[in-house]
Design a protein that fits this description.
Number of helices: 16
Largest sheet: none
Strand content: under 5%
Shape: elongated
Low-confidence stretches: 1-28
Structural class: mainly alpha
Number of strands: 0
Helix content: over 70%
């Protein structure tokens, strides 16, 4: 049995959300729409109405958010933000619902969700990448640009879920925000030490005209246990000179 809300919900509304299993999908949508309309009128905005309902009925987030998006598709940002703000732990679910509804581009949903709850960025990106794998490059780009301080967590999480696309994930992150290279490389090498050649080869080519950033990448590689000998070998294999490598490996 769900908790009664003294002001927010009437007995009729409690019946709506508490007995959904007894109704057909069509009648559920109608009742939920009426319920949301009443709460939005009380709250004076779509966002506040959704936030109030999701706060009290997190177990019904799918029907609440789905119905709200059906009713007010042009206010998808407000709805997504409100639902995630109300129940951050349901970030993945809210993102998945919005993507399934197809109300806007996947990357728009990603950006909105990350802004609503940055600490759940890995849940957002994984939900989006799993639902729209063909948009992985754009998903990573938007996520890293929106929350650059979490770039390492983003690539580590997505690479763990999709290890066969590690190179693509890394390059997308580096292209989006080049200055996060050392953190991205460190995160991937720590999580995927067997992929050191793939990671370092991509980094060397990406920063071939930026010695300062490349040196920081080499320092990150050393910090997670990649030996100087291995790095020298990888550097030579990817076109670096002995002189360059001497500079890159100095003080490491």
């Amino acid at each position: 049995m769900k908790l009664q809300l003294p002001v927010l919900v009437t007995c009729c509304c409690l019946s709506l959300l508490g007995l959904t299993q007894e109704r057909t999908p069509q009648s559920i949508d109608t009742k939920t729409a009426q319920f949301l309309e009443s709460q939005i009128e009380r709250s004076a905005s779509v966002g506040h109405g959704v936030r109030n309902v999701v706060s009290h009925y997190p177990e019904d987030v799918e029907i609440i958010v789905g119905t709200a998006l059906d009713m007010y598709p042009e206010k998808y940002k407000e709805i997504i933000h409100a639902a995630i703000s109300a129940q951050p732990a349901l970030t993945h679910d809210v993102v998945q619902i919005a993507i399934d509804k197809g109300i806007t581009e996947c990357v728009e949903i990603v950006e909105t969700a990350i802004k609503a709850e940055p600490s759940y960025v890995d849940f957002v990106v994984n939900a989006a990448a799993n639902s729209s794998p063909e948009q992985l490059d754009d998903i990573i780009r938007v996520a890293v640009q929106t929350e650059p301080q979490s770039a390492d967590a983003i690539v580590r999480s997505v690479a763990k879920a999709q290890p066969n696309r590690l190179m693509e994930i890394m390059v997308s992150a580096l292209n989006a925000v080049p200055i996060v290279g050392e953190y991205v490389v460190e995160a991937l090498l720590a999580a995927h030490p067997a992929s050191a050649e793939t990671v370092m080869s991509a980094a060397i080519h990406h920063y071939e005209n930026n010695d300062d950033e490349l040196k920081r990448v080499f320092e990150s590689a050393r910090s997670v246990g990649i030996s100087k000998e291995q790095l020298r070998e990888l550097g030579l294999k990817n076109g670096m000179s002995q002189e360059q490598l001497t500079v890159m490996l100095s003080n490491n």
